[in-house]
Amino acid sequence: MKIAIVGTRGIPNHYGGFERFAEAISSRFADHGHQITVYCRRAFTCPDDIYDRRVRRVIVPSLHQKHLDTWVSTCFAATHAAFSDHDIVLMCNVANSPFAYVPRLFGKPVVLNVDGLDRKREKWRGLGAQVLHFCEWMSSFSSSQLVTDARAIHDYYLGKYGSESVVIGYGSEAPAGDPTPVTSTGEFAVNGFHLQSGGYVLYVSRLEPENNPDLVLRAWRKVRSDWPLVIVGDNSYKPNYLQELKSLGDERVLFTGAIYGDGYWALQKRAGAFVFACEIGGVHPALIEAMAASNAILYLDTPENTETAGNAGIKYAKSEQNLAQKLQALLDDPAARQELATRAKQRADALYRWEAIAEKYEKLFAGVVKGR
Fold first, then answer.
1. What is the pTM of this model?
2. 2-171+353-371: which CATH topology?
């Protein structure tokens, strides 16, 4: 098949979950002989980018501004895809649902992956939240086929809009080999930060209120440990919030900014424990990547997170006291950490391999194209 992927910032991944999705899934599609095009926003691409050259990139204009960037770029991408020879369009992000009609008007079916409930995010207040609510409503009927990545999101769409969707999760596989060298004493360096392998707690997400980095930082102040807490992530739209977070940290907290590629996986593979605190969305990439990297995980108790991690992690309530108690107990019990790490890797291998995810999309695409 000739498959177009529309609605992400593009490849290689320089931003977040949907970009990693486009990067990973397009390579698997290429492995299986499909012709793949990924539409990329100009602001997130460089001429010397390293990516799978079997995948064609189409770079479209974008407006690097929080409220309009997605719509402007997707409008161009959807229009270009509509006049192309693609057999099917995979569109990402609920905000892009109004543009699903564009390729469909020219006979090209559109599969729409809505991710989670974006309108509930702190950054989308007032008019922004109302627009996203409208997009959510449109996503229930604007595409040829709706995809949700968690059973909880599937049930929400079915209950609220009567819209059936296909549940296909996110994928994750830790790269083979040792991404960065380790000294004889177990030390390694990532982006200038020197850490002890197995001797730090890791937190990864975009630093936004609904991802609760402040909860983790407050809980950490109650934990007795010489280990550092490594905070990986950034907030390019709200730098003042980042400064607020830094004021909550003590001398044991390291803010690394956003890290991708080998450095990211080095941090995942060598963490002593991983704390996950996101509460909005479906399957979160950072959580299953921590599972794939054999991490001992504590995760915030939400239906989506519990569906993802199950008994491969320890869940905690949205309380700094509860998180601090469970984190302290985990750090004091090396055997428990090892047991959780083993369970996490087994669950990731069983449920979230990229190859299996790609095959599910291929089967869905074949049915949609045939049904057209």
1. 0.88
2. Rossmann fold (3.40.50)
